[in-house]
Amino acid sequence: MGKDQLAVKLLGCFASAGNQLEHAAWLVFLHELSHPEWPVGPPPGHSWEEITATADGELGARLDAAVAACRRRWPLQLEGVLEAGTFADTRSHELRRALETTEKYARIGPGRGPMERSELLGTLTMTSSGNWGRQARGEFYTPANVADLIERVITPQPGEWVLEPTCGTGQLLCAAIAGARRRLGPHLAGTITYVGVELSAAAAQIARMQLVLTGHPEDGYWIFRGDSLRQAVVGRDREGDLRTLEWDVVLANPPFGNGKLALPLEAGEPLEIPERVL
């Protein structure tokens, strides 16, 4: 069974509970936090092994506790991310099946390094929105091999700022972070700041999860849900005035669109970088 088929199966584990993407994405995220390919680990007491060892009758509450622990660990990055529904509302046998499907889903594909593993959450997002619906909206997410190619072309330097104006589920940003760490080492790579903007609320939330997994410093990245064609990214200077940011590197898998975009667009409210990231 291929990646797409397993993604469908994992989402289907929560058909009776609704909020399929929310439940499935949290399971994959919890699984990946315990995977050795990622430089970040799970909150203490909430490893995947500890979760799967829980008795069926307590599994829903155990998963809800793990999600709550992640929100406490990464409060800024995971604030408001996929909040609908709880695992405790799902039948225990369905949760057990979902855990087993998650493990199968995370094992598929060649060369499961960080670049490829960052496709797991993205594939869930694409599958949940449906191929036809995505194409109608002009959504085409970057596959790992394309992200790897682009990462080898761009070379952000220590202290620089990188923008991805149509970041989707964060594939290009994850590739850029992995590439910088490989070229510069963790310390210097950690001085680069990454900012993504994404129109789709679900994709933007998945991108936040993805960047948590990279282990990049928490004040070194931010994902906006917004429209980069209409909204400037701004920050406050030392006097407290808003200034439009300038970028050292811009990543782009361009928004292909559906041919119905009318220009010029009216400007929207600016997207303000949190002071903590500045």
List keywords for this structure.
278 residues; alpha/beta; four-stranded parallel β-sheet; globular; single chain
Largest sheet: 4 strands, parallel
Neighbour order of strands in the largest sheet: 3-2-1-6
Give the low-pLDDT segments: 131-137
Strand content: 5-15%
- The helix-and-strand class reads alpha/beta
- What overall geometry do the principal axes of the alpha carbons give? globular
Q: What is the count of β-strands?
A: 7
Tell me the span between the first and last alpha carbons.
45 Å
Report the radius of gyration as a whole number of Å: 19 Å
Secondary-structure map:
Layout: H1 3-12, H2 20-33, H3 48-52, H4 59-73, H5 92-107, H6 114-117, H7 119-129, H8 131-137, H9 144-153, E1 161-164, H10 171-184, H11 186-189, E2 193-198, H12 201-214, E3 221-225, E4 233-236, E5 242-244, E6 249-250, E7 271-272
Parallel strand pairs: 1-2, 1-6, 2-3, 4-7
Antiparallel strand pairs: 4-5
Short description:
This protein has 278 residues and is of the alpha/beta class. The protein has 12 helices and 7 strands.
